[in-house]
Design a protein that fits this description.
Blueprint lengths: L15 E5 L25 H9 L5 E5 L9 H10 L3 E6 L6 H7 L5 E5 L5 H8 L5 H13 L3 E7 L8 H13 L4 E5 L11 H4 L10 H4 L2 E6 L2 E6 L22 E4 L4 E3 L1 E4 L7 H12 L5 H15 L2 E4 L4
Parallel strand pairs: 1-2, 1-9, 2-3, 3-4, 4-5, 5-6, 6-8
Antiparallel strand pairs: 7-8, 9-10, 11-12
């Protein structure tokens, strides 16, 4: 089954390279796909990362995480990528974004996505654990604008927070108060307990639909003077939508991990196959009590180690 050509898996944004720069984060977002993401043991140097990026033919490089602003060599990496004529973008929760950080580390970047999931910064802290200060954020945005950086606020729509049209309109006014005229509203991936269906709450306006794999998962509109990107989840990412039969990934997504290797899409551990710490402790207790032989326990633990690096691929955007 062929996806809509506007979709990531249908070939849109195929000139982009996503970079999993670091697995550390200062936030606590419940839906974060990196909670069950593949985390390589080897950590490449910033020079290795820059070389790996430059070897690709991708023009747009988006730095992700974890939280990319925690990366210690951001200044060096950004400088070298720009020297190699790459357009550098970054997606951040904004917790470390200050005027000084921008002046020191982000000179010359093309764009930045700041993930803020509620217009009430106190509620955003409830969701993300990040304590954003309005004055600091405003100063940072002014610095970015002064340097010609494209700015977008990213907002995941979450039940009990941004979950109806009225709340979306309030968020748009919030963005305008910072002179930010580009917002992305996205549905949650995997965390279906808090899932908000954009098509339903917006009455199927703006091209929003019930089958994004076929009809398109990315739709644009201008609402109250602000450019809006709507990002829906298809049945590959949520059980709220029909799962495509024999889905086709027309253009494999390239993701550079912090080990310096390019992977085919975002990698995710098959959690159901991995023993928890509690299960491992119980197994060792059973060995000591003679309930399980050492040989059997060894086989189980070796099998578990294999599963920990066995991953599935997610071709959609971060």
């Amino acid at each position: 089954m062929e996806p809509n050509p506007k979709n990531f898996c249908g070939g849109n944004f195929h000139d982009w390279l996503e970079v999993n720069l670091i697995n550390k984060c200062n936030g606590k977002c419940s839906w974060c796909i990196e909670r069950r993401g593949y985390h390589p043991q080897y950590v490449a140097s910033w020079q290795e990362m820059a070389d790996a990026v430059i070897k690709t033919d991708r023009e747009n490089i988006i730095l992700l995480g974890g939280e990319p602003t925690l990366y210690k060599n951001m200044k060096e990496l950004v400088f070298n990528l720009i020297q190699a004529n790459r357009k550098v973008w970054i997606t951040t929760n904004g917790g470390l974004i200050t005027r000084e950080y921008i002046q020191t580390n982000l000179k010359g970047i093309t764009g930045i996505n700041i993930s803020i999931h509620h217009y009430d910064l106190g509620k955003n802290k409830e969701i993300t654990g990040i304590d954003l200060k309005k004055e600091t954020l405003f100063e940072a945005i002014e610095e970015l604008k002064k340097n010609g950086v494209r700015i977008r606020f990213n907002c995941n729509c979450i039940e009990r927070y941004i979950d109806n049209e009225k709340e979306i309109l309030k968020y748009i006014e919030f963005a305008k108060s910072f002179n930010v005229l580009n917002v992305r509203f996205a549905e949650l991936k995997y965390d279906n307990g808090s899932f908000v269906d954009l098509a339903k709450i917006l009455n199927y306006k703006y091209g929003l639909n019930d089958n994004p794999y076929i009809l398109g998962c990315n739709n644009e509109a201008v609402v109250n003077g602000v450019k809006i990107d709507f990002r829906q989840m298809c049945g590959l990412q949520t059980d709220k939508r029909p799962k495509p039969e024999n889905p086709t990934m027309k253009y494999p997504k390239a993701v550079l991990y912090y080990d310096g290797k390019i992977y085919n899409g975002w990698q995710q551990i098959k959690e159901e196959a991995v023993m928890s710490q509690k299960q491992i402790e119980q197994l060792l207790t059973d060995v000591l009590k003679g309930k399980v032989s050492r040989e059997k326990a060894t086989k189980m633990l070796l099998s578990n180690m294999k599963y920990e690096t066995k991953v599935t691929t997610n071709h959609c955007d971060y």
